[in-house]
Structures are given as C-alpha cells and as structure tokens.
Amino acid sequence: MTTTLDGSAAVAALRTTSAIRGRAQHLLQRARDGDSPWFLVDDAALDHAAAEVAEVTRIRYPTLAIPYHSRWRHFEAGGVDRRAELYSHTANLDSASQARSMIDLAVVSVLLDAGAGTDWHYVESDTGLRLTRSEGLGVASWHAFCSGLFSSDPDDPLRADAAALRRLDDESLAAAFQAGPGNPLVGLAGRVQLLRRLGAQLASRPDVFGPHGRPGGLFDTVTGPSIAAHDLLATLLNTLSGVWLTGNAIAGQPLGDCWRHRAVPGPGVSRGWMPFHKLSQWLTYSLLEPFERAGVVVTELDALTGLPEYRNGGLLLDTGVLRLRDAVLAENDWAVGDELVVEWRALTVALLDELAPLIRGHLGASQLPLACVLEGGTWATGRALAARLRDGRPPLSIVSDGTVF
C-alpha cells in the first residue's frame, strides 16, 4: 500500500529533521552509486577531512571545552565579551526577562546573518576592530540592537518587537551596518524585507509572541523544566515560515528553505522536495544558550542537523570528499534553487553526520554534541581552507538575496 500525504501533512513532514536526514541520505547513496549528474563521492577522503577538522578544533579549543556553534560566538569577535555588557544592562531584570531579551537579539541577528559578500566590513567604534563576514554582521547587529533600532519603546531599547521591525527601512539598516556605495552589503534590501516580514509574523501570533510581538515570547510559550531541541525548531517553523519568501509552497503553505530536486523520494505531494531549514536550525542552535542560562535544560541536541551552508559544504569540496563531475561547473554562478546547489547542500547534511563520529574519534571525545563538532570544527575548517585556496571565497558561487546563505 502506497502512503500518500495531503498538503498539510506534507508540509508538517517537511518541517522535520528526520525528513531532512532521510532525503539527504538518499541523495548521498545515489551519488555513491554513481547516479548523480553533479557530484562524485570519495569515501577515502572522509578520514582526511576529519583529521583536518580535528586539527583546527584543537588549535581553537585546546582543552576541548567547546561551546555550541551559534550566533553568540560572533558576538565574541575580537575577544570582546559583549555578552557581559548585555548582562550588565539587564542585571535588574529577572532571569525570564533576561532570556527574552537574549532571544530577541538572537532571532534578529540570525536573520541578518546571510553572506555579507567579500567587499563589506564593519568598524566597531569602541574597539576600532574592523570586522567582516559573519563576525561583522554579528557585531553590527549587536550594536543595532543595543541602540534600540529594533524596539518601539524608547524606555526599553534592549528588545525587538513587531512594530519596530515592520517600519524598518533600508536607510536605517544601512546606517547601522555602515553600508553604502563604498562599502556594499550583499542583499541589504532583502534583509530589510525579511525583518519586516518577521515583524508581520510576530504580530500575527500573539498567542506565541505576546501582545507586542517579541521573539522572546518563545520563552513563555516553549519553556519548561526541559525542552527538546526539535520542539523548539518545530515551533519556529510552524510560526515563522511565512518569513521566508522563497516561492516554495504546498497547498498555499510556505515551505521556506525547501527546494525541488527530481531524485528526492517521499510520499504524496512531498515527493521531490528537499528540506533544509538552515537559518531556522542556526537560530535554534543560537537559542540554546538563552534557554540554558535561564535554567531550562535543552535535550536531544543531535536531533538537529549539520548546517548546509557554503563553509561546511566547502570543507567537503576542498578536502576532496566531494568532487564536481565537471570542474567547469565551478566557474558558473548558481541560484539557491538550482539542482546542483540543492544536492550540494543535501550531501553536506548527510556527510556531516558521517564526519562527526570520525572527528570525535580523532579528538578522543566520544560524547561531543554535533553542535560542538560544528563549532570546533567543520565551519571553521571550511573557512580556513577557503582563505588558503581562494581568498575566502566559497568553491561555488551562489547568487544570494541575503535570506538563505
């Protein structure tokens, strides 16, 4: 008997990490069988890649006290403990209020964390640090948040709410990020529209985000003595998927970071869709610390997947685990929805699951969560290889509007 799914059931299935993993593993096996038109897989290179990651991890974290891979790492750029500043400004608040403020910051900052491009930078006035890429975006968003850019209440600047987000404009964000003709930020307008849509989604769900539409409302909606990481992700996907205007939908319900691939199996109308939810999972990783700091135990971290973005995917290409069937393909510009990019991201998810135990073996750290393997880790090694080989550029050029990569 063939299982079928109607539209709502298909959308629900595509919002699970089990669907991400299962479909990614199918594409990996297909590539191993030689049936991918795009990629070849060299399993012999997996241990080499794991050794590279282990070496970088030991340099970055010699004691193996590795924090989670999250947006909070970027707030530490240049060795500056910016979180201590936030804590000092909210010291008079109870732990729940502090958590709401941290969640507000994390949500807005993560949504601003798509690739900045190679020509943009941010200069922090207090320290003189010149920061680029994710660190620059993180610190810029930090200062924008602390200045009250995302708050509609002048007496409560350390928050983000629907009213302020919905009225955000290009000029305000450009000023906060020091962007302009001489310092171009990729996808600036796309980022503004993303935050405006976030504001609309927050306002539409007062049952989750409270009367002011604050991301921090999640703390009151999802929290308990403990929460499962996947439950947190599911809440984000079920309430905020309308933020992602990818044009991908089933039965009028937006799918977000979920793309067509002809070889992806699945029941009913879910067939042919490859889900990723990369920024939503990055956001989930980034919410672990606010919840844990407030005393909530977050369980089942490894239900989340590795992040399918160009640093982790670049690690696989640059260590030879993946190879393009035709090297000329690396000279093209690719759209996020192109099948080659969809498959590259899927293979990244599946191979990160296979790399993780090898990396743990090299480190002698068998219990290291995937969130720490990524931080140690795969993302940093992918960036280091890109810097060594291509001045920091990823191995494939992806045309971005600032909302996926």
Please give a handful of descriptors for the protein shown.
two-stranded antiparallel ribbon, mainly alpha, 405 residues, 12 strands, 8% strand, globular
Descriptive notes:
It is built from 17 helices and twelve strands. The two termini are 39 Å apart. Strands 1-10 form a two-stranded antiparallel sheet. The mean pLDDT is 93. It is globular and about 60 Å long. Helix content is 50%, strand content 8%.
Rg for CA atoms = 20 Å
Strands of the widest sheet, in order across it, are 1-10
**Coarse structural class:** mainly alpha
Tally of strands: 12
Into which percent range does the helicity of residues fall?
A: 40-55%
Number of helices: 17
Short description:
The chain is mostly helical and 405 residues long. It is built from 17 helices and twelve strands.
Fold topology:
Elements: H1 7-14, H2 17-32, E1 39-41, H3 46-60, H4 71-74, H5 82-89, H6 95-111, E2 122-123, E3 130-131, H7 133-146, H8 162-166, H9 170-176, H10 188-204, H11 206-209, H12 218-222, E4 226-228, H13 229-240, E5 249-250, E6 253-254, E7 258-260, E8 273-275, H14 278-293, E9 297-299, H15 310-318, E10 322-324, E11 333-335, H16 339-363, H17 370-390, E12 397-399
Parallel strand pairs: 4-9, 11-12
Antiparallel strand pairs: 1-10, 2-3, 5-6, 7-8
Helix pairs in contact: 2-16, 3-16, 3-17, 6-7, 6-14, 13-14, 15-16, 15-17
